[in-house]
Design goal:
Layout (H helix, E strand, L loop, with lengths): L1 E5 L4 H12 L3 E6 L3 H12 L5 E5 L5 H15 L4 E4 L15 H29 L3 E6 L12 H21 L4 E8 L5 H14 L3 H10 L9 H12 L10 E4 L7
Parallel strand pairs: 1-2, 1-4, 2-3, 4-5, 5-6, 6-7
This protein binds nicotinamide-adenine-dinucleotide (NAD).
The site of nicotinamide-adenine-dinucleotide (NAD) has 29 residues, from helix 1, helix 4 and helix 6.
């Protein structure tokens, strides 16, 4: 398995890259944060025989995506799996007080970034002629709008239908495109959100943590391993009849 994982310097992306390597695959980790090179070195130390590289690139920028993807293809000698995991949380402000640039930036990273990397990797997969798998990171909040989360929700809802459209376009060539919609995951992104909520509400981080946990039927936050397991399944032959789907990985949380 030759994989490209974006947003892999830390969090869910790092966990996904780690699982790919544990399963015997090769991986290029892409991230805007130069720490991605440290993450890649850490992974290489665990699996010296694997091909692993870290590439610094902003998925919102056309030229940086082009050089990251061509570099990754050269390192890996082709690509079987792309995981579009890079994402940002965005402003926690009501629409009426959200600056247009802040709104656009969330769309640029979460939605346009997914499109930019996907179009390049899908074209490489088409040229290889052997199918492939693309997994996009949506969100629970791409399935349900929330006050103060308009940009994030809109971006992740966009990811779900970008996923469906690409799945239908690429199905004849055996390229499957799916999305995962994580719920409340134990990562820095979620801790930042809880800190912001605590500040707004004048409560403690611990109170916010307990309140979120109480909403999760399975009684715990999700982990990178929970997401990595589903990525692994989606990329495997066991999911060969699954495309265009958004799979909730959320401990049973759902909204109507
Ligand atoms: N943590 C959660 O509760 C949760 C819930 C639902 C969905 N998600 C989604 O899962 C994905 C991973 O989230 P996480 O919790 O691991 O967050 P995180 O903040 O820990 O990691 C995100 C990574 O993406 C990178 N990144 C951000 N902007 C980038 C850009 N423009 N180009 C390249 N890399 C960029 C960051 O540097 C970081 O390493 C995101 O798409 C996020 O929206 C997370």
């Amino acid at each position: 398995m030759r994989a490209i994982v974006t947003g892999a310097a830390r969090g869910l992306g790092e966990a996904i890259a780690t699982r790919i390597v544990e399963d015997g695959g090769d991986v290029v980790l892409v991230d805007v944060d130069p720490a991605v090179e440290v993450t890649a070195k850490r992974l290489s130390a665990k699996a010296p025989a694997a091909t692993i590289a870290g590439v610094v690139a902003d998925v919102a920028l056309v030229e940086e995506c082009a050089s990251a993807v061509s570099g990754a293809l050269a390192v890996l000698g082709g690509v079987d799996l792309l995981v579009n995991n890079a994402g940002i949380g965005g402003p926690s402000t009501p629409v009426v007080s959200t600056e247009p640039e802040a709104f656009r930036h969330v769309l640029d990273v979460n939605l346009v970034g997914t499109f930019l990397v996907s179009r390049l990797v899908a074209s490489a997969m088409l040229a290889q002629g052997a199918g492939g798998s693309i997994v996009n990171m949506g969100s629970l909040f791409g399935q349900q709008g929330v006050p103060g989360g308009a940009a994030y929700s809109a971006s992740k809802a966009g990811v779900a239908l970008l996923t469906q459209s690409m799945a239908r376009e690429l199905a004849p060539q055996g390229i499957r495109v799916n999305a995962i919609a994580p719920g409340h995951m134990a990562t820095e992104m979620h801790w930042d959100e809880l800190r912001a909520r605590a500040e707004r509400a004048g409560t403690s981080f611990e109170e916010q943590l307990a309140a979120v946990r109480a909403e999760i039927p399975l009684g715990r936050h999700g982990t990178g391993a929970d997401i990595a397991g589903v990525v692994t399944w989606l990329a495997s032959a066991d999911a060969s009849y699954v495309t265009g789907q958004t799979i909730g990985v959320n401990g049973g949380v759902f909204h109507n």
